[in-house]
Amino acid sequence: MAGAEMNPQRLATKRLKPGYFRVQKDIEIGGRKYDGVGNVALLMEKHFDVVHVRSLMVKAAEHGDNQALRDYMNSRVLLARKGVVMISPFISKQEKMVMQVLLKEQKPFVLLADNGFRDYFKPADYLFDACAEGRLLILSPWPYDGTKRHISRADCIALNAMAEDICQQLTSDQTT
């Protein structure tokens, strides 16, 4: 099933698990507030790491040296398999590939979104089941903007920095 045929099933799922689909306001992490949809309890896990493919790795791969990129992407999946919650805006093609593996293998992760949440937000189809099963938390530092169509480079840089900050903050919270 796809598209409109899934609407009744998704509506039933949202009604069965409303906490995972309700926009939660002012989730504070390291002094910054986020709005979120999904399983906020993921922030209580013990281990976190980021998925941030650097442009140097991509450029090297484009010139025939893809070992560093492959090793990095594989390391993210291996960490997730060991129970580490991955945090990322999953912007680049390679980061999205890692996210697809996390989804396929049903590993939990935190997705930083470049736009806030409408009043009746629902995750994209490919994220819906992960959200319903408590394996996903989508966070956004910004309010919803109905006119926003494309992510800017400045937004990408900011979201990647936030992913690093969240990871460091949550990791330090576990050790104190």
Descriptive terms for the model:
176 residues; alpha/beta; six-stranded mixed sheet; 6 strands; globular
Describe the structure concisely for a colleague.
The chain has helices at 7-16, 55-62, 67-81, 93-104, 125-132, 153-175, and strands spanning 24-29, 32-38, 48-50, 85-88, 109-112, 136-140.
Give a description of the structure.
By secondary structure, the protein is an alpha/beta fold. 43% of the residues lie in helices and 16% in strands. It contains six helices and six strands. It has a six-stranded mixed β-sheet with strand order 1-2-6-5-4-3, sandwiched between helices. Strand 5, helix 5 and strand 6 form a beta-alpha-beta unit. The relative contact order is 0.19.
Could you outline the blueprint of secondary structure elements for this entry?
Layout: H1 7-16, E1 24-29, E2 32-38, E3 48-50, H2 55-62, H3 67-81, E4 85-88, H4 93-104, E5 109-112, H5 125-132, E6 136-140, H6 153-175
Parallel strand pairs: 3-4, 4-5, 5-6
Antiparallel strand pairs: 1-2, 2-6
Helix pairs in contact: 3-4
